[in-house]
Write a structure and sequence with these properties.
- By secondary structure, the protein is α/β, with parallel strands linked by helices.
- It has a domain at 77-133: Dna Ligase, domain 1.
- It has helices at residues 43-60, 88-102, 136-148, 159-168, 206-217, 221-231, 237-268, 287-295, 316-322, 327-333; strands spanning 5-9, 13-20, 23-31, 66-71, 77-84, 110-119, 126-135, 152-158, 175-181, 186-192, 195-202, 274-278, 298-301.
- It has a five-stranded mixed β-sheet. A five-stranded mixed β-sheet has the order 11-10-9-12-13, with helices on both faces.
- β12 (274-278), α8 (287-295) and β13 form a beta-alpha-beta unit.
- α1 (43-60) crosses α3 (136-148).
- It is globular.
- The N and C termini lie close together (9 Å).
Length: 337
């Protein structure tokens, strides 16, 4: 069995993990290149990312160079479509002939893939199919970054698929919402019946919260970030002032989560049993209680290490702190397990 390197290329942090069987054998993380972007049409930025990834891999002492990376949800199109019951051959033909009505991208510039999820939750006579479309230029850019970094790309996949392996677990008799709170976006995924049923990306993330603190207290960005990490959504002491500063921004995310919960329950006739938080913002003080009270649903912080065998040589406190950040990387590394 090949030991895959799961690589999560975030806008602010690079994360990588490698797993053998169910045991963690290596992990590493480092800041992303400042000012660089894989979204911008700037080849110098891509080269900076490839150099940063190469340094990450060397520093992490990973075994082998076979890698699987995640494409950012905000840059791809993911949708669950419902089709009449039909054979796999007929589904393939239907997707290819009707894709343009679902995908808001020119098909000639897009790589299209799909996965049959099974019987629709809304209608037992129909089938749910997960449709994924990614700009060809984005795919080529990621492949180029991996190859320049000395890696052998095995596959690219949506972050949601990685999360389904690392933090969702069995949803055969339940429903779970995963909220990825990153630097630039908040990505919502709902899983039920052991399949992805709903996705949405919100263009509001940790950087917007940092800006709110910076503007409210007239602080430099790094100082504002430290305030946010220290006090977050706590109501007492200095945290109360930080909460007042970030509440208008954070409540944009809360309202979108509320809408997703309402939409899903009204369409599917099911309620969400738990919300799982991943991403750097998931570590904000007070965030679990704030969201649970606002949404009326159990909220937990993701722990992708929970089902893995962890050697005593790994720093337990550091792994616990990094857990929400590594949900995607671990899920990618579990692809072949």
């Amino acid at each position: 069995m090949v030991d895959l390197l799961g690589l999560d290329i975030g806008s602010t942090t690079l994360k990588a993990a490698q797993i053998r069987g169910k045991a963690l054998i290596a992990f590493s993380y480092s800041p992303a290149p400042k000012g660089a972007s894989l979204i911008a049409e700037n080849k110098e930025s891509w080269i900076e990312f490839s150099q940063a990834v190469a340094q990450l891999v060397v520093g992490g002492k990973f075994r082998g160079r076979n890698a699987v990376a995640a494409l950012p949800e905000s840059q791809i199109f993911t949708r669950v479509v419902t089709l009449p019951k039909m054979s796999e051959t007929e589904i393939d033909a239907a997707i290819k002939s009707e894709a343009q009505q679902y995908v808001p991208l020119p098909l000639e510039q897009t790589t299209l893939d799909y996965e049959v999820l099974g019987t629709s939750e809304m209608d037992s006579e129909k089938t749910d199919v997960l449709l994924v479309a990614a700009p060809e230029l984005l795919i080529q850019r990621y492949l180029d970054v991996l190859r320049r970094a000395g890696l052998r790309p095995v596959s690219l996949e949506p972050e949601t698929m990685a999360l389904s392996r690392s933090v969702v677990g069995d949803t055969s008799g339940s429903s779970a919402m995963v909220v990825s709170l990153g630097a630039k976006t908040a990505d919502i995924s709902i899983f039920s019946g052991n399949a992805l049923r709903f996705t949405r990306s919100i263009p509001t993330g940790g950087e917007a919260l940092v800006r709110a603190v910076s503007q409210s207290f007239s602080l430099e960005t790094e100082r504002a970030r430290e305030y946010l990490k220290s006090y977050g959504l706590l109501e007492k002491e200095a945290g109360g002032k930080v909460l007042v500063a970030i509440k208008p921004v954070f409540d944009i995310i809360v309202e979108e989560l509320r809408r997703a919960l309402t939409f899903y329950s009204s369409r599917r006739g099911k309620h969400i049993d738990r919300i799982v938080l991943v991403g750097g913002v998931a570590n904000l003080p007070g965030i679990l209680i704030y969201l649970a009270e606002a949404l009326g649903v159990e909220v937990i912080r993701a722990d992708p290490w929970e089902k893995l065998s962890i050697s005593e040589s790994f720093p337990k406190e550091e792994l616990a702190r990094l857990a929400p950040d590594f949900a995607v990387a671990v899920g990618l590394a579990l692809k072949e397990v």
